[in-house]
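Weekly structure sync, notes
Attendees: PL (lead), two postdocs, one rotation student
Agenda item 3: pending single-chain targets
PL asked that the sequence for the first pending target be pasted directly into the notes so everyone works from the same version. It is reproduced below exactly as submitted, 410 residues in total.
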Amino acid sequence: MGGHLPANLNQVMSIKGNSDRQTGPGRDPDDATMPLSLYVHVPWCVRKCPYCDFNSHTQHAGVDQQAYATALLLDLDAELTGQSRPPVVSVFFGGGTPSLLSARVLDRIIDGIAHRLRLVDDLEVTLEANPGTAEAARFAAYRAAGVNRLSIGVQSLDDSTLAAIGRIHSAAEAVAAYRLARVAGFDNINLDLMFGLPEQTVGGALEELRAVIALEPEHLSWYQLTLEPNTLFYHQRPELPDDEQLADVQEAGREMLAAAGYRQYEVSAYARDGRQCRHNLNYWQFGDYLGIGAGAHGKLTLPGPVVRRRNKQRQPDAYMRAAADGAVSNERALAADELPIEFLLNALRLRDGVPAALFEQRTGLSLETVAGPLAAARALGLLADDPARLRPTQRGFDFLNDLLALFEPE
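Predicted structure, written out during the meeting:
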């Protein structure tokens, strides 16, 4: 029986053939067009960390990765039914631990995405990896499948701290995973590192940061441990550094990162020039994204404009059974009075903020709807006095919760 090549087969081959290229900083944030990203959730981990409140589940022997890949692609088909979408600028495999996926399964998923969606030529494809699941052959196969950005969850470079926070790897294994990724050809790597960890001193936190900087990743996510309600640590609180110690770590750490050429562009994100995470920038600029996978979230702007948020079923088995019908657990359009805080909750996390015109373009509301809070924020020195840009001052960036509270609906 005869057949034909898919019209966008060149996209598949382009992803695989150019997985070693450097990706640029992404679209100009002043661009008025609405970008689109794709988030793919992989819900399994080797073990659930006591601080983690993400939708993750301990992987058991019966997990069928191919069945999950089928569900993901059925879910994506349901998302695309009857809709025309702009080209996708980024794909992000998050979790859970996506590096538990076999290279064969990941290759199938990426092929399926490329056959279903239009993709920009310099697509950013990120995969989160746990050092405890790192293998040289697996990293090389991920790169060959089309992944061109790796995000490795180091979290700490102190073995006793790693044990205290439930990580399954050692400091040496974290460094080894990074080096394996380099050998595999990855030239765009993020390292996740936390501070404010149990019994961590100021000196210890800064020494770990110094060691991570010495590895010279392109991007660093450096953030404070927070105790979320649905976690073991929330109910069995460990001994944590006090606020004064945390402030000292943050101030000294920012200076250290800046001196090493890492510019803070978001609350917990630091990057070398041109290496900001395009996928996360799209979130923070209130762009659109499809979410597929157990517990995935999506946000789309529909004609009107109407901003719709959609969540998928959280339990993997239930999600897979319902994937052909979209596996939607909750869907709603944001009310008009929710849109300002939804937009600003993201945009003001960015050190440089966003163009003021983006507010109207992406919410459909006039900036006059928040004229009072804007004036109050500027009077308090929390927002820059710049009519062309919504940008927090250094004070506003340091006291972001206070700044955002001004825009909360009454």
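Discussion points:
- Residues 1-7, 19-32 have pLDDT under 50 and may be disordered.
- The chain is about 35% helix and 20% strand.
Action: rotation student to compare against the earlier draft before next sync.
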